[in-house]
């Protein structure tokens, strides 16, 4: 039985869908954090907050590895840049509607620039918009600590940088990025 568009999408021969956390480890270790262990990968999601993971797989086989990913998790902003985000979002009137964090977005280098990362991010934002509608929420803020070198990518997808650039130990310079997501 074919999945509905709510459950899967396609981009340039890749199937985009919700995936389990374990499916993302190899990609994240290769692209983001070579020192990452499976336990370390799971630790970022150990707090029990609501979350979901999006992955793109080549072809149609369900066991194909994930080649691009993004995770979303309910999480109030904290850490470097969070004060600027909270002040900016509050001034825009979004402070009371909820916060979702975009985490560990990655695409294998040979596929970067193909639009696949943007398609994965778009699928995740659409999935979040549906979740908001199902619970009767009008909108939410999505935020992340994104690498400075990815600034144009985030801006192309509706995010804005707030606050000062900061150094994230082990992964280099970052900004806090944010955008509002309206319920579908």
Provide a brief overview of the structure.
The chain is an alpha+beta fold. The protein contains five helices and eight strands, in the order ββααββαβαβαββ.
Which properties best describe this structure?
184 residues; eight-stranded mixed sheet; disordered N terminus
Characterization of the model:
With 184 residues, the chain is an alpha+beta fold. It has 5 helices and 8 strands. It has helices at residues 25-31, 38-43, 82-91, 116-134, 151-156, and strands spanning 8-11, 14-18, 51-58, 68-74, 99-107, 139-147, 160-168, 172-182. It has an 8-stranded mixed β-sheet with strand order 1-2-3-4-5-6-8-7, with helices on both faces. The longest helix has 19 residues, at 116-134. The radius of gyration is 16 Å and the shape is globular. The relative contact order is 0.17. The model is unreliable at 1-5 (pLDDT under 50).
């Amino acid at each position: 039985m074919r999945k509905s568009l709510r459950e899967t999408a396609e981009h340039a021969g890749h199937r985009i869908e919700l995936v389990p956390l374990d499916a993302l480890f190899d990609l994240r270790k290769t692209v983001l954090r070579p020192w990452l262990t499976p336990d370390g990968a799971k630790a970022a999601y150990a707090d029990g907050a609501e979350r979901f993971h999006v992955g793109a797989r080549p072809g149609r086989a369900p066991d194909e590895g994930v080649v691009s990913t993004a995770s979303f998790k309910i999480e109030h902003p904290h850490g470097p840049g969070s004060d600027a985000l909270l002040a900016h979002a509050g001034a825009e009137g979004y402070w009371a509607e909820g916060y979702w964090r975009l985490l560990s977005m990655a695409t294998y280098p040979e596929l970067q620039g193909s639009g696949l990362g943007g398609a994965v991010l778009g699928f995740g934002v659409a999935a979040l918009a549906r979740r908001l509608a199902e619970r009767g929420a009008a909108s939410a803020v999505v935020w992340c600590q994104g690498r400075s070198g990815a600034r144009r990518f985030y801006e192309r997808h509706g995010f804005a940088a707030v606050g000062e650039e900061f150094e994230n130990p082990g992964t280099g310079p970052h900004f806090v990025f944010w955008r509002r997501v309206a319920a579908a």
